[in-house]
């Protein structure tokens, strides 16, 4: 998985952006047609035939847009499909300010409004395509259109479905990209009205964007402007009348461009006040023509004109929330309309006590920020960058009032199927805050851009004027850097403190008697042997091995030796490296010797009776060995370290497990933390594999990974014979671990707009200075979270941006910077804050905070804090937002799942009480909370339950000729289980297949491959691959679920009398357990507190 | 005798003032990114114990020489110093922990604490000075 991104990256290096193909087509489409189209509207009477003047057309666009605005809501409907190609419309703005500066009330406003769409739209197109299956891209411009249309279509199921299908299928294959895509598209449909509003406010941020393109052309050919006096008039109108509307107008203009028909129609449009209906029709039709995919149904919706707004609202109930943005809007025409139906949908309070079926049947998607669609399309994929509040409160007071945490959840190094890579000698950054140039900066003119984080005006360097994608000079706003929220730069030498390090891997094995007993060494060595060639690296890759019991064994792999030579160091008080040069050797040059060692290693210690474990000294030795280069240490440990530095004592008292008091979540020594910081300083990361039957004090040991940016794997009671399923798990996860992408000597910085500040970080790393995270290694499976506060109120800002920049050395020895930028709107009303709440992100962040709390205070404190988070936010909502006090427990629609998720957290292993959770297991779950990306964390917290005995191909996904059924997700309650069904519970790192007592005979025979219920084996963990359709469906579904994550969930088949039944029932979040409330009881408890 | 007590207290208080200033400077260096968290914390942790002792000595001295008011004034601060030192979790590297200092506004609270102590010590300084002068004159 890791490789594709890397490979793709390689090609682009030469010319820079990968997007070439993408961008070209889209540009071509958008721009060239637009020219004629624009033109005609501009001077309808005078110069209709005159199409050649591309530049002039822009002003035409302006007119068109103007018209649209007048028409009001009805018009907006047209926009959605069109919107994607606003690129050209931007330019109109330019002429306007320049030609008529005096008349304009607010030239800036106009320009900004107009300016917005250009950069944004084009970028958006390309950007989103990344998410899609690569297949769509080569197709070029038509493809992009199709895809886009498809997106819209899918958003509007009623009318569009028919046509949508072909493009829709594109989207699905890209599993990650797909969903977000749809979201964004959905929005366009619904968004238009509100969109116009946010736009205007954006002036400060983005206004300049318009001008640059505009400024250039119009200036050059003033004569044309003169040529069309009427047109200037119209311009005037538009400018004067509505600064706010200018933006939407621009996007409308883009619509026009797309379709030639529109151009002709443009004549009509060109007049300042055409009848609203007529143009509408025209527009629609034209759109329809140019894009055959657009279903007729779509046209139907638009004709209604002004009332059109409502229908749209109805169509997209989901998108509804985006509409609501009265505060931002200046567009008086559309705002109220949007408000009526839409606002209610998003803000509609849900009475949690009455509405029992609130769990969606598909995986919950991230809310889409209420931004202009063109900006939103550019925005970072929510899987990479997510904010708990997609509407940022303007002041800390407002944030405090909402009682919701503000923070970001990041997955910065996620494997991406499409990633633009830019090679350029200068990386354009803000001179004062060092922000990388991104899609949300504004261009004041062609030579200057304004940083969107600190608002400093910077010069555009000469090289940046040339766009390698389009091979055009003078279009800095179309550079890939400004078109993609996620981009990777090849860093020049300024970004290196030393030459890029080679990939260095050191494996440290515990070979004490206990370790040999578990038999892990066989599995690990074998997996390592199998994957030796797949280790990410190049010709410089180095590898080394250390084993330890009460002494430390080094292995010399010197060239010329016939077999590896073992060197034993028994002085563990003062560890030294016996032979510094041949312990870490080049993988390629010494492969045979290494393979030899891996084959013999498992047998070498079989007779060992040494029970002591000197982990501390072994780690010190490993650190000494690695410190000259940096790299990755993988430690396999099976017991509590007992001798030398870092020896630990058992602290677990089994009879205290049940109480939340006095459990040892804090490390008992600072040895591992100090060592981890030393490692971090030398760019060494330590990954810990703990395969242990008894207590091993993960709380202390885990520090070694936590502060050196490593990862922790825990295999409870690992044994090659007694627990064979763990062996498979270890194999699969180790394979992923060994072959996944890796970044060395990395640092990550998270910047945010002036006024916001980050105050707490969660994840595995060391915070070296206020906003700099030191990550000796970075891997694609690690997630991070930060908490933020609003330091200075964000007055006058319509949007804020966040940027994470990850500088790392790839396994090929290249220095690279991966930059993600996200833009979110600022709101002033409490109701808007609730409207934009992202319940999953909030839950994820709260879980992180709760882990901190349980470590620094106690577990029960943390649990109380979680419950209070729900109570506080719901009572704040009740008292400040709800005008009518209704009985019941009211929650905003966006937070309807909040109590459920918090209850799930309380029942999660990390925070649960009253059951025999082993201390190490609990701490491991806490590590996972801190280190897992949000998607997996949510799955572990709130598993998905599917009924699988009646899988059908209805609504199934098609990926690579595989048909993957998509059963609906059920609520986690035993009442949803039926005795004659079979249910799959996907809890992230484990899966349960529960077979009901009266389960259909066909399922038992055709999927489980046994004659009857009674003969289902007690500890079944694999489904037989049978030739029946049912079996194929079930197995593809399960393997599809497994493929989506970097770890290997074990599948347990659970019957009524299985010992695992209790674990299965434990995950039934909505039900009552001996020590925890049921969902309904929990709601009653909250209601009681809220209504107090 | 009394003057000796106050002369000693003055010297001790000066040292504590310097220490507070040193804390403030180092912390603000960290805030401005001039030094990294690791070196900042190891620098500061070195001086935590001397500070505790320095302050405890003055407090005890005041108790012995029966200056009740000054003793009671010093007592809370001395107690806080000792409490803070004792309550460091076993896994942390001292009162100032490099892995925690950037979290949950710890840096700010450390800074605030150092400022308050500086103010307190200045107050004490002038009080001792006054007592000393009034004694001598």
Automatic annotation (TrEMBL), chain B:
Keywords: Membrane, Transmembrane, Transmembrane helix. Its main location: membrane. One of its GO terms (biological process) is vesicle-mediated transport. It comes from the Eukaryota. It is a multi-pass membrane protein. The chain crosses the membrane at residues 6-27, 48-70, 114-133. One of its GO terms (cellular component) is membrane. It is found in: Membrane. InterPro entries: Cornichon. Belongs to the cornichon family. This is Protein cornichon 4. The lineage of its organism: Eukaryota, Metazoa, Chordata, Craniata, Vertebrata.
């Amino acid at each position: 998985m890791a490789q594709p991104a890397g490979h793709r990256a390689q090609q682009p290096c030469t010319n820079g952006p990968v997007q070439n193909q993408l961008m070209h087509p889209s540009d071509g489409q958008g721009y060239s047609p637009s020219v004629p189209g624009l033109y005609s509207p501009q001077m309808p009477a005078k110069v209709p035939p005159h199409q050649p003047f591309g530049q002039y057309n822009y002003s035409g666009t302006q007119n068109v847009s103007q018209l649209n605005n007048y028409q009001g809501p009805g018009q907006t409907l047209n926009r959605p499909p069109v919107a994607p190609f606003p690129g050209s419309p931007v330019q109109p703005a330019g002429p306007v300010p320049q030609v008529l500066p005096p008349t304009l009330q607010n030239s800036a406003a106009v320009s900004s409004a107009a300016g917005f769409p250009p950069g944004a739209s084009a970028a958006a197109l390309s950007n989103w395509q990344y998410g899609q299956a690569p297949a769509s891209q080569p197709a070029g411009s038509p493809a992009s259109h199709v895809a886009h249309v498809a997106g819209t279509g899918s958003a509007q199921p009623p009318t569009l479905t028919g046509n949508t299908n072909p493009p829709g299928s594109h989207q699905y294959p890209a599993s990650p990209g797909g969903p977000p895509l749809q979201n964004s598209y959905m929005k366009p449909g619904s968004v238009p009205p509100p969109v116009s509003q946010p736009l205007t406010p954006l002036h400060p941020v983005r206004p300049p964007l318009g001008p640059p393109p505009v400024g250039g052309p119009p200036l050059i050919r003033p004569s044309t402007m003169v040529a069309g006096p009427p047109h200037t008039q119209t311009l005037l109108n538009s400018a004067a009348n509505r600064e706010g509307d200018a933006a939407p107008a621009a996007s409308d203009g883009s619509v026009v461009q797309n379709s030639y028909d529109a151009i002709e129609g443009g004549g009509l449009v060109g007049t300042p006040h055409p009848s609203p209906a007529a143009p509408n029709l025209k527009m629609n039709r034209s759109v329809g023509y140019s894009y055959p995919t657009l279903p007729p149904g779509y046209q139907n919706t638009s004709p209604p004109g002004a009332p059109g707004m409502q229908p749209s609202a109805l169509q997209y109930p989901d998108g509804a929330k985006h509409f609501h943005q009265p505060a931002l809007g200046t567009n008086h025409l559309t705002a109220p309309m949007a408000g009526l139906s839409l606002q209610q949908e998003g803000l509609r309070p849900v009475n949690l006590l009455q509405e029992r079926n609130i769990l969606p049947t598909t995986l919950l998607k991230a809310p889409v920020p209420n931004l202009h669609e063109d900006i939103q399309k550019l925005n970072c994929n929510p899987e990479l960058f997510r904010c708990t509040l997609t509407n940022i409160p303007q002041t800390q007071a407002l944030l405090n009032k909402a009682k919701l945490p503000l923070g970001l959840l990041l997955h910065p190094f996620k494997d991406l199927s499409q990633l633009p890579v830019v090679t350029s000698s200068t990386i354009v950054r803000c001179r004062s805050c060092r922000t990388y140039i991104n899609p949300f900066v504004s261009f004041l003119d062609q030579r200057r851009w304004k940083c969107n984080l600190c608002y400093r005006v910077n010069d555009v360097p000469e090289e940046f004027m040339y766009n390698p994608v389009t091979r055009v000079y003078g279009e800095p706003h179309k550079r890939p850097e400004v078109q993609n929220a996620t981009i990777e730069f090849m860093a020049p030498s300024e970004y290196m403190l030393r030459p890029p390090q080679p990939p260095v891997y050191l494996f440290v094995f515990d070979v004490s008697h206990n370790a040999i007993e578990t038999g892990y060494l066989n599995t690990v060595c074998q997996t390592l042997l199998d994957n030796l060639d797949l280790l990410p690296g190049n010709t410089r890759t180095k590898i080394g091995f250390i084993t330890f019991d009460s002494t430390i064994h080094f292995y010399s792999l010197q060239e010329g030796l016939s077999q590896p030579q073992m060197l034993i160091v028994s002085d563990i008080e003062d560890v030294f490296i016996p032979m510094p040069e041949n312990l870490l050797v080049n993988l390629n040059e010494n492969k045979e010797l290494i393979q030899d060692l891996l084959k013999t290693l498992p047998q070498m210690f079989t007779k060992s009776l040494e029970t002591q474990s000197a982990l501390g000294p072994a780690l010190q030795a490993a650190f000494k060995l690695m410190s000259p280069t940096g790299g990755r240490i993988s430690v396999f440990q099976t017991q509590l370290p007992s001798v030398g530095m870092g020896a630990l004592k058992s602290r677990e008292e089994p009879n205290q497990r049940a109480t939340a008091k006095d459990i040892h979540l804090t490390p008992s020594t600072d040895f591992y933390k100090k060592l981890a910081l030393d490692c971090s300083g030398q760019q060494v990361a330590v990954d810990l594999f703990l395969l242990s039957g008894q207590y091993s004090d993960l709380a202390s040991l885990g520090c070694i990974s936590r502060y050196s940016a490593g990862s922790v794997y825990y295999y409870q009671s690992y044994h090659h014979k007694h627990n064979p399923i763990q062996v498979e798990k270890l194999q699969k996860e180790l394979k992923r671990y060994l072959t996944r992408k890796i970044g060395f000597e990395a640092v990550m910085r998270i910047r945010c707009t002036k006024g916001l500040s980050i105050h707490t970080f969660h994840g595995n790393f060391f915070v070296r200075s206020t906003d700099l995270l030191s990550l000796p290694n970075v891997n694609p499976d690690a997630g991070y979270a930060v908490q933020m506060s609003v330091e200075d109120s964000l007055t006058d800002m319509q949007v804020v941006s966040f940027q994470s920049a990850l500088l790392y050395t790839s396994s090929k020895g290249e220095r690279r910077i991966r930059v993600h930028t996200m833009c979110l709107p600022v709101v002033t009303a409490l109701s808007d804050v609730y409207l934009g709440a992202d319940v999953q992100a909030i839950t994820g962040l709260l879980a992180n905070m709760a882990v901190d709390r349980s470590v620094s205070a106690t577990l029960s404190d943390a649990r109380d804090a979680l419950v209070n988070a729900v109570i506080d936010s719901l009572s704040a909502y009740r008292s400040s937002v709800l005008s009518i006090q209704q009985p019941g427990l009211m929650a905003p629609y966006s937070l309807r799942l909040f109590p459920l998720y918090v209850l799930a957290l309380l029942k999660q292993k990390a925070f649960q009480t009253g059951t025999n959770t082993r201390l190490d297991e609990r701490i491991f779950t806490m590590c996972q909370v801190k280190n897992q990306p949000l998607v997996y964390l949510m799955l572990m917290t709130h598993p998905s339950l599917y009924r699988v005995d009646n899988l059908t191909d209805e609504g199934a996904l098609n990926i690579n000729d595989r048909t993957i059924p998509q059963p609906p997700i059920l609520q986690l309650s035993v009442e949803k289980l039926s005795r004659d069904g079979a249910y799959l519970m996907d809890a992230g790192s484990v899966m349960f297949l529960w077979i009901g007592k009266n389960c259909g005979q066909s399922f038992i025979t055709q999927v489980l491959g046994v004659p009857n219920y009674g003969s289902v084996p007690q500890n079944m963990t694999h489904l037989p691959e049978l030739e029946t359709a049912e079996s194929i469906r079930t197995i593809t579904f399960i393997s599809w679920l497994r493929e989506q994550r970097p770890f290997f969930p074990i599948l347990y088949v659970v019957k009524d009398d299985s010992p695992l039944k209790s674990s299965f029932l434990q995950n039934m979040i909505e039900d009552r357990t001996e020590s925890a409330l049921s969902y309904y009881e929990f709601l009653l408890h909250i209601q009681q507190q809220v209504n107090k | 005798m009394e003057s000796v007590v106050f002369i000693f207290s003055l010297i001790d208080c000066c040292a504590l003032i310097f220490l507070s200033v040193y804390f403030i400077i180092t912390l603000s260096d960290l805030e401005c990114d001039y030094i990294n968290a690791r070196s900042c914390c190891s620098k500061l942790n070195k001086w935590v114990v001397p500070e505790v002792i320095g302050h405890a000595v003055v407090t005890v001295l005041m108790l012995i020489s029966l200056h009740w008011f000054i003793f009671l004034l010093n007592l809370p601060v001395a107690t806080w110093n000792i409490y803070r030192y004792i309550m460091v979790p076993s896994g942390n590297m001292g009162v100032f922990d490099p892995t925690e200092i950037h979290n949950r506004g710890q840096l700010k609270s450390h800074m605030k604490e150092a400022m308050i102590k500086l103010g307190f010590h200045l107050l004490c300084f002038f009080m001792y000075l006054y007592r000393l002068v009034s004694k001598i004159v």
